[in-house]
Each structure stands twice: as structure tokens, then as C-alpha cells.
Amino acid sequence: MGNDKSPRNVAVAIIFDSQTARVLMVTSRKHPNLWISGSPRDIAAPTDDERLMMIAMEPGATKRPSVWHIHVIRTSEVAVDGTPDWPEQDERQRSWFSLTDALGKISQWGSDLQAGDSASNEGKVAKGPAKKALKGGAMETAFRAFMESEGISPAEQP
């Protein structure tokens, strides 16, 4: 099992309110100062899920490649905010951001490399920054592809 080279499947959700043109993001459990795209568990509200794309990532910090499955979940801020109880509410914060602000939050995954990782294993600490940069790059690619599919330019965002 340790030599498994099959791709690791990673699901990413872009939770989007088309009326406000904002996305829901949550703080990372491992890196609470960093924001990530949300997941269906973070909303507990009715959604319209559509698969947007797949991103194949080469191995970097991991020993095997990753395939990121990107899903767009259309909902409304009113519906989400009207359901204050959600499974990880004691572990994370959630907030709505414009797509431009969301890209700024995602870019912090690459610029936050100096922050260090809390892993106790020396090998994990060494690969932490590379893994964070890979995750940030995949999220940024997903958000940019979503913006393009919606015909939204970062310059058009409030």
C-alpha cells in the first residue's frame, strides 16, 4: 500500500451565490489563518451541484499525483446564513468573499510558506510548504476556471 502510485482523488467545491457573485470560504483546520474553498458540509442548505472540471496535478510534496475534482455548488447567502448550525462550526470560521478577494485569500497559501507547519514529523515539515503551495495552486486554478466559465473578469469584481 505504501507504494501506491494511483492518483489521489481530491474534491473541491466552489460554493457560489450568483445574486451576490460571492463564494463561501472556510478556514483551514490545520492552518487556521488560511482560507480554503468550502465543502457541501459547510452550508447545510439546498444546493444545485454541477461538476465544473478536473485538474490533474503532478506529484510534488506527495508520492503520487492528485486529481482534483471541482464542483460548483449554487446556493444563496441567505439560505446558508439562515442555517447557522453546520458540522464543523466549532473547528472553522466561514465567510463570503468576492471572487477577487477569494483569489487573494487563496494566494496566501503560497505566500504563507514562512509560517511553518505544526507537524511533528521532520519529513512532514519539509514537505509542508510544497504541499501548501500545490493546494493553493490547485484552488487558484479552479477559481480562475470558474470565473472564466462564468464570463467574470477579476477586474469586474467589487
UniProtKB/TrEMBL annotation:
Superkingdom field: Eukaryota
Ranges for region Disordered: 113-137
Protein's recorded name: Nudix hydrolase domain-containing protein
Provenance organism: Dioszegia hungarica
